[in-house]
C-alpha cells in the first residue's frame, strides 16, 4: 500500500510539473475575428483620418477627462531641484459596466499616444487612468539643461515605481465603494514598472496584461553589426554601473538623438507595421501642453542616455528575477514575434518565476504573429486580436474563471 501511495504521489508530482511546464510554454495568440467580435474597436483608416484634436474630442465625448499634476519623489540626483511634477489623466466612464483599467505606458510615450486605445476601452465599458512617467510626456524633465529636455533619462528606475504607486493609491481612493474590479495594462517599460509594483503586493488589482514588457532591453536588437552588441551581455546581468550623474557619460546619448533630429519616416523595421498609426504616434510625441496640468510644455522624448540604460537594465533584472514569485494576480504577457526592442527570453524567465512554487500558473505567455514592439498601435489585423484578448482576459478573471484566457 505504501509503495502504491508513493508511486501515486510521484505520478501526481510529475503530472503537475508537466502541466505547469506546458502552461508556461509560449502559445500563439489566436488572430481570428472571434477574439474581438464582441468588442467595438476603432480602425487604422478611421484613426488616419483624424488629427490629435479630433481624437481628443472623440475621447472627451465618451468621458470628459480630469487632468492634473502631483508631486512625485524628488529627483534622486538633485533633491534640491524643483519638485518633479507628474502629469495624470482620469477618464471615469459615465457608462462604466466592466471596471477600471490603469495604464502604464512605455519609454518615450505619454497619455496622448494612448488616445485611440483609451477610446476603445471607454466604448467597451471601462474607465481609464493614466499618467506620464517622469522625464517624458507632460511630466517634468530631469536634466537641468533645456537643450537636453528631450533626452531619454531617468534618475533611478525605482522612482518610476514610486510614482506609479502614488497613482494606484489615488485611483484606489477614488474608486472606494465601486464594486467593479480594477485591472492593470502596461506596455514595454511600463511592463517592468508594473512587475516591480506587483511584486510589492497586488494592491487593488484583480489581474494584469503586460504588452511586450521590458523585462530586458534588447540593446542592439537583431542588428549583428551594431556597436551596441557589447552592452547586451552587460545588460543581461546588470553589470552596467553609473554611480552618479557624470557629465558627458550618464547624460550622453547611447542610442538615437534628440527628438527634433530623429527620423520620423516609416521604416519596415520600426516599432509597428501600421504607417497611419506610426504617423499618429509621432504627432502625439510632439504634442504641446498648456496650463496648470502640465509638468512640461511638450511631450518630446528622443534617444536614450547611458544613465537610462543602466537604470533600465537594473530595473528589468529585478523585475524578472526571483522576486516575481511574489506576484499573486493572474497575468497575461503578450510577446510580438517581430519585436526588436525587448528580449523575448526575459519574458519567459519572468513568467517562470511568477509561476514558481504555485499549484496553478498565474502567468500566461502568448506570442503575437508578425507583431512588432508597439502592439497597441499595430495594424488592425494584429491590434484587434490583442485588444480583444486583453479585454476577454479581464472579463474572464472578473467572472472568477480559472485558466484565463
Notable traits:
alpha/beta, 405 residues, nine-stranded mixed β-sheet, two-stranded antiparallel sheet, globular, Rossmann fold, 11 strands
What does this structure look like?
This protein has 405 residues and is α/β, with parallel strands linked by helices. The chain has a single domain (2-398), classed as Alpha/Beta hydrolase fold, catalytic domain (Rossmann fold), CATH 3.40.50.1820. The protein is 35% helix and 14% strand. It has eleven helices and eleven strands. The chain has helices at residues 2-24, 44-48, 52-62, 115-123, 157-174, 189-199, 229-236, 275-285, 306-320, 344-355, 380-398; strands spanning 27-28, 66-71, 85-91, 99-104, 126-131, 182-187, 205-211, 253-255, 304-305, 331-336, 363-368. Helix 3 (52-62) runs parallel beside helix 4 (115-123). The longest helix has 23 residues, at 2-24. It is globular and about 55 Å long.
Radius of gyration: 21 Å
Which fold name is given in CATH as the topology?
Rossmann fold
- Tell me the overall shape: globular
Helix/strand-derived category reads alpha/beta
Q: What distance lies between the first and last C-alpha atoms, to the nearest angstrom?
A: 40 Å
CATH superfamily: Alpha/Beta hydrolase fold, catalytic domain
Compact description:
This protein has helices at residues 2-24, 44-48, 52-62, 115-123, 157-174, 189-199, 229-236, 275-285, 306-320, 344-355, 380-398; strands at residues 27-28, 66-71, 85-91, 99-104, 126-131, 182-187, 205-211, 253-255, 304-305, 331-336, 363-368.
Give the arrangement of secondary structure elements:
Elements: H1 2-24, E1 27-28, H2 44-48, H3 52-62, E2 66-71, E3 85-91, E4 99-104, H4 115-123, E5 126-131, H5 157-174, E6 182-187, H6 189-199, E7 205-211, H7 229-236, E8 253-255, H8 275-285, E9 304-305, H9 306-320, E10 331-336, H10 344-355, E11 363-368, H11 380-398
Parallel strand pairs: 1-11, 4-5, 4-6, 6-7, 7-10, 10-11
Antiparallel strand pairs: 2-3, 3-5, 8-9
Helix pairs in contact: 3-4, 5-6, 6-9
Amino acid at each position: 500500500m505504501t509503495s502504491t501511495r508513493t508511486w501515486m504521489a510521484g505520478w501526481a508530482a510529475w503530472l503537475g510539473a508537466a502541466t505547469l511546464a506546458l502552461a508556461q510554454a509560449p502559445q500563439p495568440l489566436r488572430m481570428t475575428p472571434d477574439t474581438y467580435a464582441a468588442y467595438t474597436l476603432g480602425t487604422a483608416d478611421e484613426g488616419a483620418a483624424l488629427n490629435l484634436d479630433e481624437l481628443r474630442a472623440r475621447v472627451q465625448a465618451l468621458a470628459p477627462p480630469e487632468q492634473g499634476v502631483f508631486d512625485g519623489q524628488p529627483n534622486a540626483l538633485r533633491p534640491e531641484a524643483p519638485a518633479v511634477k507628474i502629469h495624470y489623466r482620469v477618464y471615469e466612464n459615465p457608462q462604466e459596466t466592466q471596471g477600471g483599467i490603469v495604464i502604464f505606458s512605455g519609454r518615450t510615450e505619454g497619455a496622448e499616444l494612448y488616445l485611440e486605445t483609451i477610446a476603445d476601452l471607454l466604448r467597451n465599458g471601462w474607465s481609464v487612468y493614466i499618467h506620464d512617467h517622469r522625464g517624458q510626456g507632460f511630466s517634468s524633465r530631469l536634466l537641468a539643461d533645456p537643450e537636453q529636455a528631450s533626452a531619454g533619462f531617468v534618475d533611478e528606475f525605482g522612482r518610476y515605481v514610486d510614482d506609479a504607486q502614488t497613482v494606484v493609491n489615488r485611483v484606489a481612493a477614488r474608486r472606494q465603494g465601486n464594486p467593479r474590479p480594477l485591472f492593470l495594462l502596461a506596455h514595454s517599460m511600463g511592463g517592468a514598472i508594473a512587475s516591480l509594483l506587483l511584486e510589492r503586493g497586488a494592491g487593488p488589482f484583480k489581474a494584469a496584461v503586460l504588452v511586450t514588457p521590458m523585462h530586458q532591453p534588447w540593446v542592439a536588437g537583431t542588428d549583428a553589426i551594431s556597436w551596441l552588441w557589447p552592452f547586451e551581455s552587460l545588460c543581461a546581468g546588470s553589470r552596467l554601473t553609473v554611480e552618479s550623474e557624470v557629465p558627458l557619460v550618464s547624460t550622453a546619448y547611447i542610442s538615437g538623438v534628440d527628438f527634433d533630429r530623429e527620423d520620423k519616416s516609416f521604416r519596415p523595421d520600426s516599432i509597428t507595421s501600421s504607417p497611419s498609426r506610426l504617423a499618429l504616434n509621432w504627432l502625439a510625441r510632439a504634442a504641446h501642453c498648456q496650463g496648470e496640468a502640465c509638468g512640461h510644455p511638450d511631450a518630446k522624448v528622443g534617444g536614450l542616455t547611458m544613465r537610462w540604460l543602466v537604470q533600465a537594465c537594473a530595473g528589468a533584472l529585478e523585475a524578472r528575477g526571483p522576486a516575481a514569485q511574489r506576484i499573486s494576480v493572474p497575468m497575461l504577457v503578450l510577446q510580438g514575434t517581430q519585436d526588436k526592442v525587448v528580449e523575448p527570453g526575459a519574458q519567459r524567465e519572468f513568467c517562470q518565476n511568477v509561476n514558481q512554487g504555485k499549484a496553478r500558473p498565474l502567468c500566461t505567455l502568448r506570442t503575437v504573429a508578425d507583431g512588432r514592439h508597439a502592439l497597441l498601435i499595430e495594424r488592425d489585423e494584429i491590434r484587434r486580436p490583442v485588444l480583444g484578448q486583453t479585454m476577454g482576459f479581464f472579463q474572464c478573471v472578473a467572472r472568477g474563471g480559472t485558466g484565463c484566457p
